[in-house]
Write a structure and sequence with these properties.
Blueprint (H helix, E strand, L loop, with lengths): L10 E6 L2 H17 L5 E6 L2 H4 L5 H4 L7 H8 L5 E5 L11 E5 L8 E5 L16 E3 L3 H10 L4 E3 L5 H9 L7 E5 H6 L8 E2 L16 E6 L3 H8 L4 H17 L7 E7 L6 E9 L6 E9 L3 H17 L2 H10 L6
């Protein structure tokens, strides 16, 4: 039954200022509006640390809250009630005063190839030797170096439209770029996808939480938690919690080459297959493993992610990640 009271205060939704982030927040607002047609909603968009510095490669930041900390400050201070994040941008350890209230149905988590407008290439394999791939993600570049050693990689950052413009620039260095498929789809640019890059498509494992949104609230705000919980998707939430548990165990972040893939196998049986890979920056070393497990609770999801992480560490992932963090350039 929908809430109809117009006496409730406006629900204040925070997000990053990029077009994609605002579109995502508006989508959540519209869904909540249907649940509470008599309530008003306000969206506040701001630029975060990661948005303000468009030149530094993500790997060189080292920080794990580039996209979230300023918004969380407004949330904790009471100036916002909800923050809508891309789940892949959220650190696996949240501030003690914040919590994830819901993870809605996940969109396509795969990465996608976008070739410069006018070029004839249709796949990464058909790109000529030395072609330059734009990406800020070491997860993407490290995995793709293993599969396509004929390619070169260059840092490319900015919102979706900015990156597309840089790639399409006839005088620009980029022949193509890699980004999340759902990011393009959400802003109406699915037609620019040249090739989907899931592992089953001959591509790569995606980022933890990619394709999903995380709805963050102040811890203890049970009224908002209950309201947002109506947007939650059970299987999306369990799969993402397993992925985040794996990353937390590996002490990774968005700037390290950890890739995952989760797939529900058993229909109503809640059998989850989880695969993960850790790759060195130069792609010379990698560790990969897979576990199938029955997952019906948050605790079972967490246990699956932790078990797979432990197996990866035992096989050598810990040494790879330690080397990456030891050699990361210091930030001023």
């Amino acid at each position: 039954m929908a809430e109809t009271s117009s006496s409730m205060p406006p629900l204040r939704i925070g997000t990053r200022k990029s077009n994609l982030a605002v579109v995502q927040a508006e989508g959540i607002r519209d869904r909540l509006q249907k649940l509470a047609p008599g309530r008003t909603f306000e969206i506040t968009a701001l630029r975060t640390i990661g948005d303000k510095d468009q030149n530094t490669a993500l790997y060189n930041f080292g920080a794990k809250s580039l996209w979230t900390s300023e918004l969380e400050e407004l949330l904790v201070s009471g100036k916002l009630d909800i923050v809508v994040h891309c789940l892949k941008d959220m650190p696996t350890e949240l501030p003690s005063s914040c919590d994830i209230a819901a993870i809605p149905l996940r969109d396509d988590p795969r990465d996608a190839l976008i070739v410069k407008a006018g070029l004839p290439y249709t796949t990464l394999a058909t790109l000529p030797s030395g072609a330059i791939v734009g990406t800020s993600s070491v997860r993407r570049s490290a995995q793709l170096r293993r599969l396509h050693p004929h390619l070169r990689f260059a840092n490319l950052r900015g919102n979706v439209e900015t990156r597309l413009a840089k790639v399409d620039d006839p005088k620009g260095e980029y022949d193509c770029m890699i980004m999340s498929a759902c990011g393009l789809e959400r802003v109406g640019l699915a037609h620019r996808i040249t090739q989907y890059l899931g592992s089953k498509d001959g591509g790569i494992f995606y980022a933890v939480g990619q394709g999903a949104l995380g709805l963050e609230i102040r811890k203890g705000d049970e009224e908002t938690r209950e309201f947002l919980g109506r947007l939650g998707d059970e299987k999306s939430g369990l799969a993402c919690r397993a992925e985040r548990a794996l990353m937390r165990k590996l002490e990774g972040g968005c700037s390290v080459p950890i890739g995952v893939e989760t797939e529900w196998l058993g229909g109503a049986e809640f059998l989850l297959r989880m695969r993960a890979i850790v790759v060195s920056i130069d792609s010379s070393q990698s560790v990969q493993d897979t576990i199938d497990a029955r997952v019906q609770t948050d605790d079972e999801a967490t246990a699956l992610g932790q078990e797979l992480a432990a197996r990866l560490v035992k096989a050598g992932a810990g040494a790879i990640l330690k080397d990456i963090n030891t050699n990361r350039p210091a930030k001023d």
